[in-house]
Amino acid sequence: MKHFTHALSPWFDAVDGTTHFTETIPQLASNSTALLNAMLAISAKHLSLMGSLEESVCLRYVDACYNVLIPELQHRAFECENLAAVLILRLVMSMTDPKDVAASGNIFLGLDVFMAAWKANPKSSLHASIFLNVLRLYIHVAWVEKTPLPEADESAHWMCDALAASGGEARIENCKVTLQTARCLNYAYGDRPKTWERWLEYKRISDEWRFSKPKYFNPVYAEPPMEGDPFPKRLFATDLYAFSHQTYSLARMLLLNHQPTTPPPTHLSVVVPLTQQQIEDETLVLTRKILGTAMSHADSPIPFISTLAVSYAGHLLTDRLAQEYAYGILHKAQRQVAGLTPAEEFTRLRQIWAWDVPYANVL
């Protein structure tokens, strides 16, 4: 339990800016066998990835959790302790291979169930935190697999109202950019036509957050890379602010690189499409900011989400030092949450970068 609260709960709390997984969830676990075993399972999994425990210990806790949780879900699926247990088990599976989650059947409640549970309990800050965490996991898998995820609620105003009721403007802003990322994933990899109207609407939302977000979301310290530094320094007041910026940058990166390929229709003749060079230039700027933020928050969960930028745009990093630091961020995340970056991704990047000298492990 101590390992969970000290080492793992920040992974969840950074997504929402609360301390529910540090404080509330352990309290609930004292009366929930399923949740307790889920917490022990993820702790054992983390320790096994670091070589401090046998993998079989994690599997025993997972089985013990299943035995209690499955009957519970039939009658009390909306209860926070059961939702949290499912969320944690989903991450346990993702820590080895995100594909295992999809193959594991209905034990992993769909995103719609988590959303419905929050909607039925709109004043529950914990329900909100659990939903945003499970949405984060869906986003990560969808990004890696280049697939759409279940449609985010397009009429999401109720989410912002619910977060306002439970206190926290910062949580509202974070929710906005997280939902924007979900929508951009569905735009990029879904079946609906990539029209200019859709693209411009998502770009409008992106620009609006970029220029109208609360000032406290800006870095408290930022400077361009000094000699010997591959990326700019970007330090934020809280992990939530940093996480929101990473999420915003990923959504914008995805949008830029899925600009419609057809000319704008006549009623949008004032629109000037971005050139490929403009797209690559802004994508590279966003990637460097994401990785600079990850390095500035190296002891937080922020580097985990930053791996998505390396996988997506690592080919744009042309200097060896930047490549090695980016590779180091992937490597560090791999040691703690193996499934975040597929093993073949390391080989792919080395081939793209034409490395003939082994990775120097500069971090």
TrEMBL record:
<protein>
    <recommendedName>
        <fullName>Transcription factor domain-containing protein</fullName>
    </recommendedName>
</protein>
<dbReference type="GO" id="GO:0005634">
    <property type="term" value="C:nucleus"/>
</dbReference>
<keyword id="KW-0539">Nucleus</keyword>
<dbReference type="Pfam" id="PF11951">
    <property type="entry name" value="Fungal_trans_2"/>
</dbReference>
<dbReference type="InterPro" id="IPR021858">
    <property type="entry name" value="Fun_TF"/>
</dbReference>
<dbReference type="GO" id="GO:0045944">
    <property type="term" value="P:positive regulation of transcription by RNA polymerase II"/>
</dbReference>
<dbReference type="GO" id="GO:0003700">
    <property type="term" value="F:DNA-binding transcription factor activity"/>
</dbReference>
<dbReference type="GO" id="GO:0000976">
    <property type="term" value="F:transcription cis-regulatory region binding"/>
</dbReference>
